[in-house]
Amino acid sequence: MQRLTRMKIRQWLSIKPNSILYFLIYIKISQHKIKTMTQKIYETFQEIFPELKQQTLPEDLTEFTVFENWVNQDYSFIQYVEIKEYDINGINDSTVFKQKQVDIEALNQAIDTDVGVLFDSLEEDQFDEDYDFEARFEIEQKVEEILFDQIKHFAEQKQLTLLVIFRENPYWLLVPSQDELQLQKIVNEFNQCFGQDGDLTMGVY
Description:
- By secondary structure, the protein is of the alpha+beta class.
- Helices cover 52% and strands 9% of the residues.
- The chain has a four-stranded antiparallel β-sheet, with helices on both faces.
- The longest helix has 30 residues, at 19-48.
- It is globular, with a radius of gyration of 21 Å.
- The chain starts with 5 loop residues before the first helix and ends with a strand.
């Protein structure tokens, strides 16, 4: 919920003698709007993944970790990536890949091959933890790009679209390929709900 500044509170309390009542009503309306907004993304995911219709919505709808746990309660729809250990990427666990019978072994091999080419092009000191931070960050970005390029390539063969939740260590998920406006609707609802603090942002890859 958007924080109320002290000035905003003073303005509310100085409007009328019964302004406290108005202020409390304002808070209640704001909370209702937030609940309605956050509930949309849960309902949207139930449409994308009908299996989730069997699950009860959590009490706290505003935290991404709660949302992730709810989506992955009985399945593995949202995958986590540890960029420094790129093989921790959720590919082997992906429910959608299993349902679509994607050749996971071939996908992992393609990623390993491309990352191997990248690493072969680096100098030995570039693997050092003390190596220039910006240069190491650039290497990690290249690894991330290789990973998602290959996931996208294999996903598109099964009429799937890759969505990425960008952060220091990103998440990803696959949804059925559909109209661009529908994909953007998913992205917008997610970002409105969980992207307020700027820590994570979803995008179509």
